[in-house]
Specification:
- By secondary structure, the chain is α+β, with helices and mostly antiparallel strands.
- It is 51% helix and 19% strand.
- Strand 7 and strand 8 form a beta hairpin.
Length: 363
């Protein structure tokens, strides 16, 4: 029995370390805009991911970076001829967290090639970072709504542009996958939720976590916390995507790290027993603002926006549900054993350490 407990302890701590160490890798975004003489492209590239794609580090000057991007952004006409790619402007946004490079580009077709039919290729990061995603959208004019074309990654580095699908639900499947990927990478959002669930099977009495409270208590706790967190982040996800609420990223990211620290302290010793649902919904509002940043740059509108946000949110919930389906039986099994106190405290301590590190980085 002691050997089993030790193996469970090691397994749980390993899983927690993997979750804590896997901070979300931001995606790239490409917005293509039709012009009379070509295509205007606005690229957003996360600098930490771009640096991973460049073995020698970021170039010292804009000219080198412009040449690199021009070599890795490849529009191609239906007959195989390459378009002309010109980098118009680079903006280094070091103050953002994570820092981004914004690139404005002009794409022009070769003589006689159609402007509305081409293949767009982009492997500026994905050729070296297999997990990286690039979201591609298209609009017909500066004031027109954006239409999601799809996502690019290591296994698919180009996409056909034939004018976007006019149906309002077009692109929802890609946004669903994007929502799943946003969680699957092992993010601070999941670490917050898992840390808050550490004492799910325990009773709080006399300022301490006591014995196993039973399966019914555990399931009720899980349902309450997960539902509250979902409602909270769903509200601000929609408001953030609409632009109704828009806060600078650094304080949002700092608040997310703070939510993990609060959950870790609560997992060690009860801070807000029987009020976990309210805490989950409150911090869910903050996490939703971070979710919104992942799709806001697509500039969707109307029915496309509603459908896109719903698909993205369903992707988040699907992956979150899968993680909880794995975590709930483990919590049920471990909470019955004397070793669980050490498991819970060790996992809470690890989460607290990661939260403090992230807070220091984001300050």
């Amino acid at each position: 029995m002691a050997a089993v407990s030790k193996r469970l302890l090691a397994l749980c701590l390993l899983a927690w370390a993997m979750a804590a160490g896997a901070h979300p890798a931001p995606q790239s975004e490409v917005l293509l805009e039709s012009r009379p003489d070509g295509i205007h492209a606005e690229l957003v590239l996360p600098l930490d991911q771009l640096q991973l794609a460049l073995p020698g580090g970021l170039p010292a000057g804009d000219a080198e970076m412009a040449a690199y991007l021009a070599a890795h952004i490849r529009p191609v006409a239906p007959d195989g001829r390459a378009w002309v790619v010109k980098v118009e402007r680079l903006r280094w946004q070091w103050s953002r967290q994570p820092a981004d490079l914004l690139a404005s580009m002009t794409l022009r077709p070769p003589a006689g090639a159609p402007l509305d039919r081409f293949t767009f290729g982009d492997d500026a990061i994905a050729h070296q970072v297999p997990s990286h995603l690039t979201v591609v959208a298209l609009r017909s004019a500066p004031d027109a709504p954006s239409r999601l074309l799809g996502t690019l990654h290591f296994g698919q580095r180009s996409i056909e542009v034939r004018g976007a699908d006019p149906r309002w639900w077009a692109g929802c499947a890609d946004l669903f996958k994007l929502g799943m990927a946003h969680i699957a990478e092992g993010t601070d959002h999941v670490l917050f939720l898992l840390t808050l669930l550490l004492p799910a099977a325990l009773l709080a009495r006399d300022g301490r976590w006591q014995a196993y409270a039973g399966t019914r208590h555990l399931l009720a706790y899980l349902l309450k916390v997960v539902t509250a967190f979902t409602l909270g982040h769903s509200v601000t996800l929609m408001l953030g995507a609409l632009g109704t609420i828009r806060l600078p990223e650094p304080p949002v990211e700092l608040a997310i790290a703070l939510s993990i620290l609060f959950s870790a302290v609560h997992a060690w010793r009860p801070l807000f027993p029987r009020r976990e649902g309210w805490v989950a919904s409150g911090f869910g509002l903050v996490h939703g603002l971070a979710f919104a940043a992942a799709i806001r740059e697509l500039q969707l509108s109307g029915a496309r926006l509603v459908a896109g946000v719903l698909a993205f949110n369903l992707g988040i919930e699907a992956m979150q549900g899968a993680i909880l389906l794995l975590a709930a039986p483990l919590l049920m099994l471990l909470a019955r054993r004397p070793a669980y106190q050490r498991v819970r405290q060790a996992a809470a301590l690890l989460s607290a350490v990661m939260a403090v590190i992230w807070m220091a980085q984001r300050v």
